[in-house]
Amino acid sequence: MAGTNQRIDAGRLWNSLMSMAEIGATPKGGVRRLTLTPEDQAGRERLAGWCRDLGLTLRVDAIGNMFARREGRDPSRPPVLMGSHLDSQPSGGKFDGALGVLAGLEVMRSLNELNIATEAPIELVNWTDEEGSRFGHSLMGSGVWSGVFTPDKAYALRDVDGITVGEALDSIGFRGEHPATPFEADAYFELHIEQGPILEREARQIGVVTGAQAQVWYDAVITGQDSHAGTTPPSTRRDALLAAARVIELVDATMRKRGEDGRGTVGFLQVHPNSRNVVPGEVRFSVEFRHPTVEQVEAIAGSFPGEAGKAAAANGCQLPLTELYRIPAQPFDASCVALVRAAAARLGYASRDIISGAGHDAVYVARHVPTAMIFTPCKDGLSHNEEESILPEEAAAGCQVLFEAVLARANR
Ligand code: HGY
Ligand code: MN
Ligand code: MN
Ligand code: MN
Question: Domain Peptidase M20 dimerisation spans what residues (predicted)?
Answer without folding.
Answer: 215-303
